[in-house]
Design a protein that fits this description.
Blueprint lengths: L5 H5 L2 H20 L6 H9 L5 H21 L3 H33 L5
Length: about 110
């Protein structure tokens, strides 16, 4: 492509190698000691946390899932959680698209005089 791409300008093989090495090493160490390997994903999620105010609601949700929903649904609860997350993310995307469509229509029709 002419003019380059932001992705290719931001891509660095050195950082890719460091990230791949850290992730693989952390997974191997956690697996060897029998610790939860999803700890790596939690660490990455924590690094990307934008606002500290959301942490309270994440903690409440985690406690509800662990102590209420796990008792109610048993071992199937862990299989339901990724589906709930995917549904929530898809719903948020759809709501955002509908909101943008209404905003565009509103701005397009506002200057019209009937």
């Amino acid at each position: 492509m002419e003019g380059g791409s932001l992705f290719f300008e931001a891509w660095r093989w050195k950082f890719f190698g460091i990230g791949l090495g850290f992730g693989t090493g952390a997974y191997i160490i956690l697996a060897l000691f029998g610790l939860p390997t999803l700890l790596v994903f939690g660490l990455v999620r924590g690094l990307g946390q934008g606002t500290p105010a959301c942490a309270v609601f994440e903690l409440i949700g985690a406690l509800l899932g662990r102590f209420y929903f796990r008792k109610k649904f048993g071992s199937m609860w862990m299989k339901y959680t990724p589906i709930l997350l995917a549904g929530y993310a898809c719903g948020m995307g759809l709501v955002a698209m509908v909101g943008m469509a209404f905003a565009i229509l509103n701005k397009m029709m506002a200057p019209l005089i009937f």
